[in-house]
Amino acid sequence: MTDFSISVIPVNTPEGAKYYVALTSPQIAFSVGLIPESILGLLERPNEPIAPGNFTTNAVFRKFLADVIARNAPDDPDMQAAAAQQGEGYVAIIDRRRPTPSKDDVPPEDMLGFFEIKGGKVVPGSYQASPNHRLLTNHGFFRLDRFLEERLHQELAARANVPG
């Protein structure tokens, strides 16, 4: 898998310098370009640390992330096991940026979204992204489980035409 890391990429635009926080390495960004789906957001004040008050989320990335989750999570063995155990109802996709003792203690900003479950199976096309999820909180950037993280990186690599 290609090594994707969170980087600040400076870009000169007609409006002046912008500092994009991207899920890519500077080497990839400067060799193949900065694709919109890899841009997590904009660093408002480049001389300050990346923090929630200094970061504006990129709506294109949020939509891309939701799409990757919607298409790939039903194939995740952990999701399939959770659906089988749940039987009926909904299964949440929880951000892994911090340990959570139980599903009842998950703060809204750490809830990525939900899938409907019927008969112990994920209902295709049922994913609903949570409007309350935050890509960046005081606990850091979002984290996916290994299965979804691999799919996200594969799809970013494919869009950038980088071997994944």
Structure description:
The structure is a single chain. The chain is of the alpha+beta class and 164 residues long. The chain has one domain (6-159). It is built from 4 helices and 10 strands. Strands 1-2-3-4 form a 4-stranded antiparallel sheet. Strand 1 and strand 2 (16-23) form a beta hairpin. The longest helix has 14 residues, at 59-72. It is globular. The N and C termini lie close together (5 Å).
Largest sheet: 4 strands, antiparallel
What is the total domain count? 1
Percent of residues in beta strands: 25-35%
- Provide the spatial order of strands within the biggest beta sheet: 1-2-3-4
Structural class: alpha+beta
The average pLDDT score comes to 91
Helix content: 25-40%
Give the quaternary arrangement of the chains.
single chain
The number of strands is 10
Low-pLDDT segments, ≥5 res = none
User: What Rg, in angstroms, do the CA atoms define?
Assistant: 17 Å
